[in-house]
Amino acid sequence: MKEFxxxxxxxxxxxxxxxxxxxxxxxxxLSEIYRVLKFNGEFALTFAKKEFMExxxxxxxxxxxxxxxxxxxxxxxxxFSIENRKTxxxxxxSKAGEKxxxxxxxxxxxx
Length: 111
Known about the structure:
40% strand, elongated
């Protein structure tokens, strides 16, 4: 597998949706994101909340689940400042065909 290495201060904005669950070392990933962001760069991190994810049967296999407070703590440990955080709820149909309320967060962090 080829590794990608980006120069420091390369990006104005970075976002990720539903990937934090799979990061083996979230502090390292967040430090790398911080490193490649330009001064005042923004990072948007979107994830479904731990409480919701725990209700899904497949998340017991290889998922690391987080509360909003845990994610904010990780971001701050990587030197980010928290600019905004919002929680949303939406009705979706599960893989079992049932209607469920999915709660997710978007956290905007700044370098």
